User: What shape does this take?
Amino acid sequence: MTIARILFPLPLPEPFDYIVPDHLSVETGSYVIAPLGTQKRIGVVVDCQDLQPDRKLKALLEVLPTPPMGRSMRQFIDFCARYTVSPPGLVLSMALRSSQGLLPSPMRTVYHTSDRLPDRMTAARRAVLETVAQHPGLGASALAKLATVSAGVIKSLAESGVLAATNEPVDRPFPAPDPNRPGIVLTPEQATAADQLRHHIAAEDFKPVLLDGVTGSGKTEVYFEAIAAIIKQDETAQILVLLPEIALTEAVLNRFEKRFGARPAAWHSGLSQPQRRRTWREVAHGRARIVAGARSALFLPYANLRLIIVDEEHDGSFKQEDGVTYHARDMAVMRAKLEQAMIILASATPALETVVNADTGRYHRIALAARPGLAQLPDVELVDLKTETPAKGEWLSPVLKSALLETFSRGEQSLLFMNRRGYAPLVICKACGERLKSPTTESWLTEHRYSGRLVCHLTGWSMPKPSHCPHCAARDSLMGVGPGVERIAEEVRILMPTARIEIFSSDTTLNADDSRNLIDRMANNEIDILIGTQMAAKGHNFPNLTMVGVVDADSGLQGGDLRAGERTYQLLSQVAGRAGRAQRPGRALIQTYQIDNPAMVALVQGDRDGFLDIEKDVRESLDLPPYGRMAALIMCAPDLTMADTFSDIIGKAAPHGEQITVYGPAPAPIGVLRGRHRRRFLAISKKNVDLSAYMAKWAGLIKVPNSVRISIDIDPYSFL
Ligand code: ADP
Assistant: This one.
């Protein structure tokens, strides 16, 4: 009797055994439907054996018509589960994001002309026949709409055979990329980089490659050459390009289309169900050849994944913080290894982890030091806010104001960067001093003037701005403190009443269309000054943008996070890199109170490697990543007493570990989130320690009621 072990996409501790009925043909990796409790569930066969069961087992119900999940994908799920200390079923659920993708595409009826004519011609019928002649292959509703007739007209023409009806899949295949289309003419430096990549491909050298090139040096053009080489080598090869979600814009997809004559399949959180289903299925069948996606695209069931590119590999959005907490860059390196595929990590400001891997020879390094043609890197200057103080109640220093005015008078564009949404990040009552907080979360409310609301940026909770202080009931006493993008826009409008000013943040651009529209208008020179959060910082190419002003460079340095300096450097050099992309020289002005901070000094001197050397020394001396390992355990309890009691129990349960130090419990910086009280533990170890195994063992020893939740974060990036 054949017994199949089935893993379900659920947080269950292990797979379950089922009998395979004789009429079903199952192999390891098959996607199946099986009874689970009172329901029917989709699962994946992780093992198949002929044996006599020692207990009564249920039978499988159905095998789904999709290619079985490959061995390397199954190994990847196991690895990811073990590394992140998550149930394998939870990791599998990330790979099964579209159950409809497991089935063939739904069909639809479309219409063409036939050689029959209607026995009686009417105006409506004529309209339909003319429309079909011009637009063959439309469905009934689209055809009726275009011909401005009722659906009944189409129906009767089809029934009488005047319209020929055919069935076709609703989900269209993705067009195949053409690697032989000519690319841009590469500079000698770019051509050498592309040659090196082609050399690694030809030699089947799968050591990860760091493509380390300044912003605008043509990293994308260079990795396009690697994509072309892979597709030429293997006509079934699939390529995954991982991008920060924020960068998955039309502009990027258009660039792929221009180069390969076919748009890549996109995968991100904004897809509709039908788009998701289509991409999932086409990837599983190996027909979607290039996928450009956010981090979750790593878990798609590629049939023949040959190349992964992680663009902007240092970007924080590759770390998933909910559910399975994984870092897509790190997991991509593992996936490529299991697939025996090539992986390229591209960045102008690579993560320290990646730099150290390149330094020690675990990764190849290919460098691009120059921007092509005349394009220059911008001049970066610091504005010392201690001496260049903005006027009272303002945030822009006199130097920055003059730079804005000069740039405007030359007909060029400026970008002001302020990584805070809304009008003011804090609201205080002038009468009683109360700082307004969210009712269930320990975070200050941000004032948004456009919407007239006070918003908690952690949970999204909001309320209309009250006319009275909720604490002392004083009238009109609430005052916004500190700047957000809306307040900066207000200041610029007063300074430059005739300039065209726009805000670029997730509040003003709610969807992909809004943001595309804004980017197009900026690129077409219809905006003089763009005031943006980090949405505006990344990836865009604005040829007439020559001045970038950073309003508050210090905001990211607060909080004592181990990567604060590194992240500030990355973000600010990214922002500064927006200036002077075309043939015009650019300038970046950075307002700071910390002109001696190594990150600021490095920005001015363009000395990234000097900055990284300082960072490396500090981290190495403290055994911090990448020289040591870290893992966090976060506990959430419904009330304070339980938080105290159980954090004590959890702390005592921590097993003794060689070369492992456990810190905590400490109240989390966000001590209360959505009404739940949070405590944090941090385990730090030497590099060679299997910290995942240690955390799994610890979690196994913890006995707490269901209302107390424990989550584990291996290699944490957020310490909130
Ligand atoms: P990066 O990915 O390193 O930021 P991109 O590949 O986006 O750089 O290139 C920046 C801009 O320069 C793009 O508009 C690109 O088309 C252009 N570019 C890059 N290389 C060349 C080249 N050799 N000739 C002309 N334009 C180029």
About this structure: The mean pLDDT is 92. Residues 184-187, 190, 213, 215-221, 372, 541 surround adenosine-5'-diphosphate (CB under 6 Å). The domain at 2-96 is CATH 3.40.1440.60 (GIY-YIG endonuclease).
